[in-house]
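User: Round two. Same drill as before: sequence, then structure, for each protein.

Assistant: Same drill it is. First protein:
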Amino acid sequence: MLFNSYEFLFLFLPVTFAVYFFLNGKRLLLAANSWLLCSSLFFYSWWNVKYLPLLLGSILFNYTIGNLLTDYESLRKKPVSKKSILVVGLGCNLLLLGYFKYTDFFIANISRVSGAALPLQHIVLPLGISFFTITQIAYLVDSFEGLVEERNLLDYAQFVTFFPHLLAGPILHHKEMMPQFSRLRNKLINYRNIYNGLCLFSVGLFKKVVIADQFSQWATAGFDVSTSLRFVDGWLTSLSYTFQLYFDFSGYSDMAIGVGLMFNILLPINFQSPYKAVNIIDFWKRWHITLSNFITTYLYAPIVRSFGVITFWNSMAAIFLAMLISGFWHGAGWGFIIWGALHGSALVINHLWKKRKYRMPKLLGWLITFNFVNFAFVFFRAKSLTDAGKVLQGMAGANGVMLHYSIGRNPILSKLGSLGITFGDWLNGIRGTDRAYGMALAALLITTLTINSNQIITRIRGDWKSFLFICGAFFWAIMEMGHVSEFLYFQF
């Protein structure tokens, strides 16, 4: 089930909310929590119920391993070491993720290298598997470190399956989340939280349906349909995806946080105006913040400790490896690996720059950072390296430059033709109209010069102006919901 669907907006969400707080109002706390868990499982099963046992099995397995790790010191018999239990737990999670996500990738590459025509398995990726797997990996590591305190099975299951975050994040941490499900004051209706949650949800829905879905049409045409791109439509192809991904994923995060607020559950902020970043370190402090925290705690830190002596260059190697792994986690393709390597290299260069105490004007830093992020996203989006090359060739002007045919009618500007510039339907490569570059410019201004959705909510008051603003955003989004489109990160 998707947030941007009528069944979620007008049936699932209101019914789940009403029954949950009705049961809490009757002091049937166990029944209320059980209802919320069952609702989350129903939400997940809406896509394909056959993957529900996979999710439940993952929860029971990791909860059991977590308890073994937490209670290890109190066990009378210790047939295996504590570290062995952790390795088994992590290994099973990684094998599960690897089977569904990377089997065909490895088969295809083995076939390419060996020349053997090995058949692909065409395994369907269960929704949310990347997110609920790494969430539980973090739980196991913390159990091993003795950092887990809350161990109620119902709360743990709710922590993993809570429907707002289940399919595409934000990535949650048990220490922040599990106590919220048992906190008594969270069982009471909080009208301020409901209002703020509805406001944030409406902003996120608008970002997804009105903005992201429009950019997706141009990005799809440029990446997947056109066989070649010229300079302008090459740049609009890459920019369309850069803006689509941000408004789609941050829109989902806004909606998830908004729904969580309605249930008095505070989910972590996932975006803080990332396209305002003036360097790549700054970018990763603003983009997919919960993933950045996971990478730092559960990838970078163990890698750098494994080197024994922590030096600057060991830290740089750990950063690069962590980002490389992060790229592969995003998807089974060389484009994701290249994307991770690019960001890992950029982070190393940025740290070296800081170590040398070099200076750079903020505007130049922003320009370099934004264009690097846009460039790297080409590999992230392209279905093949050939498609990535096609877009990059267009951006470099390798296929020529075409401007709007009206420019060629100007007696002065028409002289640009002597430079090899042609005039005509300049956005054919993305099946676009003049609206495409207008929206790209508007998106650039919105993401770099205006406040973000988190700041909007802190400034919204319970007055008529704010109410009309939110209602306008919500109903505009509803009017644009001609078809239900999936969120991009459902595929990761």
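Second protein:
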Amino acid sequence: MRKILIILTGLLIVASCKQSANNATSRQAQAETKPETTIVKDSSYRILSEKENVNPSSGINKCNIEIELKEKVSKDKLISIANKLRSTRTSYDFLWIFYYLPNMKTGIGAWATTHFTPQLQVNILGPTTEEETKLKTNAKIVDGNIIGEFFETQYTSGTYTVYEKNKKIFIKIGFKDGSSSINEMAKKELKNGTKLNYKNGDSNGEYFILTEKGILEFYNSENKMFTSASKTK
């Protein structure tokens, strides 16, 4: 009887060791086939909104994402961000991504876009860092005394130099492509600043107000302010 117990105990130990070895082998195989992935957070941007438009009956399968960048980035960086977002949203046929800079309003005038339609298309709408530097350099080149230099980001991505010559007021507007225009302005003093109207009348009713705080406000023909620009100098 004692021998039988010894034999049974030995068999149990062997079986236990064999099971442990099998479990270890199984865990190792799982680790080899399913490696752990580390998600690296990207602090260069944050998602402001994400809206899907999916309607199988009409064949619509799309998602729009609005991004706020911490600062202007290169085209390669935009591609990297776009591909990262696309990799986790493969169920959509189309993925449209809009990029805004800090303090820009969403829904209008994005600084850049990376749209998967379905292939990736990258479009930098506003000036790059290098282009902005050139714009601001050219803005200083005027024939007169500078009152203020401004940069508008949302709608025009352009520079606006208000200056005076021979007791007349002018605005020099610089554009992303390097071109510029000079317009003589009619000046009218208001309680909150100075109203500047285009003298040539080709502005479709748009005008500026240069406030006492040094802000250049943009108004449409309905007298509604639609954007503003702070002094760069």
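Residues 129-230 form a domain with the Lipocalin fold (CATH 2.40.128).

User: Perfect.
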